[in-house]
Amino acid sequence: MKNMLIMPTQAELEKDFSDGADYYILNAGEFTANKHIPGVVNDAAVSLNFEQGKMVILGSQYAG
To answer: DSSP string covering 23-60, please?
Structure first.
């Protein structure tokens, strides 16, 4: 993975992330979605909340 990314300088990190991230992605890997909730039919789920800038990934180890 290191050969695919360019490491930012400390100055770039301070400039771009000084006030927090725009979005937070929470990847729960193998933890699956609860099929006992009405409407949930799969183990995997990706839920987005654009207002809060958050994403949750359940039941999928794919992160690409």
So the answer is: -EEEE-TTPPP-TTSTT--SS-EEEEETTTTEEEEES-
**Where would I find the H helices in the chain?**
10-17
Q: What pTM value is reported for the model?
A: 0.61
Domain ranges of the chain: 20-64
Sequence letter at residue 63: A
Contact 48, 23 (CB under 8 A): no
What is the amino acid identity at position 25? Answer: I
Burial (Cβ within 10 Å: 0-12, 13-18, ≥19) of residue 58: buried
Which tokens in the block code for residue 16?
């771009």
In tens, the pLDDT along 15-53 reads 877 777 788 899 888 889 888 989 888 888 888 999 999
